[in-house]
Amino acid sequence: MNMMTLWHISGWEFAALALAALLVGFSKTAVSGANTVSLAVFAAVLPARASTGVLLPLLIAGDTFAVLTYRRHAHWPTLWRLFPAVAAGVVAGTLFLARVGDGIVRVSIGVILLMMTGITLWRRRQEATEDVSTRTGRATAGAYGVMGGFTTMVANAGGPVMSMYLLSAGFRKMGFLGTSAFFFLIVNVAKIPFSAALGLIDGNSLLLDAALLVFVVPGAFLGRWAVHKINQRLFDRIVIVATVVGAVELLLT
């Protein structure tokens, strides 16, 4: 795999990755959309394709912590409704990733994230939430599911897409966190064989993960503390702003 090993990363580069790993933990227990900043940092320090394989085990560690923290708040009907579409998106993302270069991946994900943010802001201005029991609601869930699976496979960037869906569906803070925690733990674990088959996970990537894992845990504790200090309106705004920032970084990286 075309990537730098732990021994070839400079002190400054490792510090940037460590800070991004801290943010992984924080995003999983506080603000999901903030995770796009982490993937942008990883893509800047490491080869973009290889960075997705390094980041995946760290995301799973953060997901596990989030599930342990918010497991009682998950809304399983929403999860079961999303999974089939997400599976289709993961397959499409795998095929896409096998055929295109890093530049196209970044631009595609950045554009999708900005589009999803724009749609969500428009819907919130209309004071509308998506009733998932209707035909339109099921179609919307399917569209977000496919895009979530696609973006999480090609760039670990499914967080903002699903954040936009959960906000548009009217989820409150704790339901948002519990549902997204289970969603991403299941999806990210399911991505492991696809990533391994593409050569994105190997011994070198796992060695780097072992060195960075220690930074995910304090980030998760920090997020768990911070989430109780944030009111619902501020929470929604932070999610949206973090999504836009991450999308712009992908387009400019």
Automatic annotation (TrEMBL):
Keyword field contains Cell membrane: yes
Segments passing through the bilayer: 82-98, 104-122, 174-194, 206-227
UniProt keyword terms in alphabetical order: Cell membrane, Membrane, Transmembrane, Transmembrane helix, Transport
One cellular-component annotation, GO: plasma membrane
Membrane topology: Multi-pass membrane protein
Compartments it resides in: Cell membrane
UniProt similarity note: Belongs to the 4-toluene sulfonate uptake permease (TSUP) (TC 2.A.102) family.
Protein name per Swiss-Prot or TrEMBL: Probable membrane transporter protein
Organism: Streptomyces bauhiniae
